[in-house]
Write a structure and sequence with these properties.
heterodimer; A: about 450 residues; mainly alpha; two-stranded antiparallel ribbon; 15 helices; 10 strands; about 5% strand; B: about 350 residues; two-stranded antiparallel sheet; 14 helices; 4 strands; about 80% helix
């Protein structure tokens, strides 16, 4: 395997791993703060129990997110030193501000997790809200750096190949706003549906108590709201990408030939050599309409750029369909839940089963969406400015570190999954560890 | 001038990381070497002290990295190439240390022996301890490699020298020195945050670690003189020597205060000692980021970027420092001693 492939693989593994925890680090604090706010407002103990349980899940996932995020900040220089030598000073301001947001998140999380008995209820709730807010801010700021790589702005390369850049360059990228909105919503969706699955499973096993009902309802309130907003945000993103990054849209839609009245292709296997898609379901003219609001408008195909500048069409198209399919499945489950709970009190077994099966869909959609945007940017590391292969390290040995980090993340991911499973016992987390065993035993009956 | 200020800011973040997160690594070291009848109590005290703050302390490292690649991008690129392997090992240590610490905290307690950690918890505890010992050594070695002159850079690229620049005598000694300092910081802090026999345990450990710090310094002096005369001269220069002299005085004071069982004074002196030694090293290293090929000025980002970073600092710190103050007041304030006594 050549260095470029190994470096990309290591970056992909590191980001795919970190992203789950980054998303949970944004979503979980919102859930736990909402639950605590409901506890303070209503005085119903199961809301307090939910907040404590979600705080524990946050503690586990935030720590893994923090250390895997540290790895990424190093890996930018370890794997892509030529890119960082060129762009570090340009995207740096986004990371510098993100550093403060992340710092605040870590500080207030420490206060929240260990401060149940030391802070007043209001101060404790405020600390939780600060975690939730700084988590979102941190995500939005880090997306600015990525947005700049998609649509670089605010700099010019002078004749002597030195770079003159505005310090605000990452925030000047036109892609930032829509990317930040889309990714923030996806974090809430991923967290909320993952949590909903846990409580749906508990209820399927007969634990239909107030604790489980509240956990499911709260998770699906956040999840459904975000999932309903997401297609709107996705539409804004698609129109933006159609205007500014037509190659990425063409790859995601497996749209090979520039044409008027372009159809949407659902599913199918793109054949890059023959420039056709086999077995796709076609909806005539819809791509033109979605991309431009006009059924007959021209949509640029991959043939608009040289073959060497095509991203991997099969991967982009598959990931795009997975993202959109998961999104609509989650919208369906969310609406099903609220329609059912509007009519009668208890969610039915089939709904609960669907929620359990659909529990990973939000995380799947998050990963797939990331693949669409990052694979769709290839072969560029900074679109139109620097090729990925020109950013990579000249050091040999990346293959070894790639395998090493893959094994490390597999082990940590497995261990964390087992611990989270243990946390999801079906019993509320109790303040006193001494009392826990008996109560857990009682709940297991 | 702007570049020098940015470098000073980076050094300040590095000092904050050493003083705060260094003690968290030290906590892990003393977890690995917990001995005697109060072994579990020692480990509990360490976990109790680290729990609320270690993640915030860790963020100082992210600050250092972000400041480096924002303000000195070409130097960061050269470090990424030249220290490819040790940086990966540092990451391995950082990831395992942090993950193992929380995994242990959320692993089940033993069923057969109530109150004792279960098998999973013991395994993660071992990983936590081992990673806490290895990581500061590697970080110290990287710091040593940057100063010692073995890491050469040409045309922006790290040049493959004969042998790894971080495995030479001076970087190795720097790694050992970092390990001793972390162990010392942690033991002194823990002696402040515990009481009774546990406090005596940590006081004895602090005295042992302090002796190790002195021994490692004694080992480094001839190495500096023989292997890195540029740094030796820098340390003895009129700019750096006064700072180092304050550092040495603080080190002596902290040892004396420990001996006389005055833990609060020992803590203040230990912080001053660590800060002054690192500051003195930074001043001696000036104007180089990587000696002898990469200077602060040659590696500096465009002025607009430096200005952005420097101007954003007071605003960021205005948010950060009160929050940090609250965190440390709640968990490290006078209330803590009482909490530990029962």
């Amino acid at each position: 395997m050549e260095t470029l492939t190994a470096a990309r693989a290591q970056m992909e593994v590191s980001l795919a791993f970190h992203m789950v925890f980054a998303a949970l680090g944004i979503g979980m604090p919102l859930l736990m703060t909402l639950a605590e706010a409901l506890w303070l407002r209503t005085g119903r103990a199961h809301y307090r129990d939910l907040a404590r349980k979600w705080a524990k899940a946050t503690a586990l996932t935030f720590a893994v997110g923090a250390v895997s995020g540290t790895a990424l900040s190093f890996e930018l220089g370890l794997l892509w030193p030529r890119f960082m030598a060129f762009a570090g000073g340009i995207i740096g301001p986004a990371f510098a501000l993100e550093g403060y947001a992340f710092f605040l998140e870590a500080i207030f999380l420490g206060l929240y997790l260990y401060g149940w008995e030391r802070l007043s209820p209001r101060a404790h709730l405020a600390a939780g809200a600060a975690v939730a807010a700084s988590g979102v801010l941190s995500g939005v700021l880090v997306v600015a750096a990525n947005a700049w790589m998609q649509e670089p702005a605010g700099f010019r390369i002078l004749a002597d190949r030195t770079v003159e850049a505005s310090a605000w360059a990452p925030f000047l990228s036109p892609a930032w706003g829509q990317m930040a909105l889309h990714s923030t919503l996806s974090c809430y969706i991923a967290t909320a549906f993952a949590a909903a699955g846990v409580y749906a499973l508990g209820m399927l096993r007969g634990r239909r108590d107030a604790y489980h009902r509240a956990g499911l309802t709260l998770a699906l309130a956040v999840g459904t709201a975000a999932a309903l907003l997401q297609p709107l945000s996705g539409h804004v993103s698609a129109q933006h990408v159609a205007r500014n990054q037509p190659v990425k849209l063409a790859a995601a839609e497996a749209h090979f030939h520039t044409q008027r009245g372009a159809p949407i292709l659902v599913g199918g296997i793109p054949d890059t050599e023959a420039r056709t898609v086999r077995g796709a379901f076609r909806i005539p003219r819809l791509l033109s309409f979605l991309a431009t609001d006009d059924f007959n408008a021209e949509v640029k195909g991959l043939d608009a750029v040289p073959r060497a500048e095509w991203p991997n069409v099969a991967v982009s198209h598959l990931a795009f369909d997975v993202m959109v399919g998961s999104a609509f499945a989650m919208i369906g489950m969310g609406l099903w839940f609220w329609l059912a709970s509007g009519r009668r009190r208890e969610p039915g077994r089939w709904l609960l089963r669907a929620l359990v099966a659909g529990s990973p869909l939000g995380i799947l959609a998050l990963e797939a969406g990331w693949i669409v945007t990052e694979v769709g940017r290839q072969p560029w590391i900074v679109r139109g400015v620097m090729l990925t292969r020109d950013g990579v390290t000249p050091v040999s040995g990346v293959l070894a570190t790639f395998f090493g980090f893959t094994v490390l993340y597999l082990v940590l991911g497995t261990a964390l999954a087992l611990l989270l499973r243990r946390l999801a016992t079906g019993a509320p987390a109790l303040p006193s560890p001494v009392a826990a065993p008996q109560v857990e035993a009682a709940h297991a009956r | 001038m702007l570049a020098d200020l940015a470098a000073a800011l980076t050094l300040a973040a590095l000092i904050a990381y050493a003083v705060l997160a260094g003690a968290d690594f030290g906590g892990g070291i003393w977890d690995a070497f917990a001995r005697g009848p109060r072994r579990d109590a020692q480990r509990d005290a360490i976990a109790h002290a680290m729990g609320p703050v270690w993640e915030a302390n860790h963020v100082w490292l992210i600050f250092v990295v972000v400041l480096l690649f924002t303000c000195f991008p070409s130097a960061y690129a050269a470090l990424g190439e030249g220290l490819f392997l040790p940086f990966h090992l540092v990451l391995l240590g950082i990831i395992l240390r942090g993950a193992a610490f929380v995994f242990r905290a959320y692993s089940p307690r033993s069923i057969r022996r109530p109150g004792r950690p279960g098998r999973g918890a013991r395994r993660w505890g071992a990983v936590f301890g081992a990673a806490s010992v290895v990581t500061p050594v590697l970080l110290g070695m990287c710091l040593g490699a940057v100063s010692a002159g073995g890491l050469r850079v040409s045309g922006g690229h790290a040049v493959a020298a004969d042998g790894a620049p971080w495995l030479r005598p001076l970087p190795l000694a720097t790694g050992g020195f970092a390990l001793a300092v972390c162990a010392y910081l942690a033991a002194v802090y823990l002696a402040n945050e515990t009481a009774g026999e546990l406090r005596e345990d940590f006081r004895r450990r602090a005295l042992a670690a302090g002796t190790a710090v002195v021994a490692m310094s004694a080992l480094m002096l001839p190495l500096l003189y023989l292997r890195a005369p540029h740094l030796w001269r820098g340390l003895l220069s009129a700019r750096a020597a006064p700072v180092l002299a304050v550092g040495v005085a603080a080190a002596l004071l902290s040892g004396w205060a420990l001996w006389r069982r005055r833990p609060r004074l020992a803590r203040a002196a230990t912080v001053a000692q660590t800060a002054c030694l690192l500051a003195g090293w930074g001043i001696a290293q000036h104007p180089f980021i990587i000696y002898p090929d990469v200077t602060i000025h040659a590696a500096a980002a465009p002025e607009s970027t430096l200005r952005f970073v420097l101007w954003s600092t007071p605003f960021g710190m205005a948010l950060l420092l009160p929050s940090l103050w609250w965190l440390f007041r709640v968990f490290k304030g006078p209330m803590m001693g009482l909490a530990n006594e029962n």
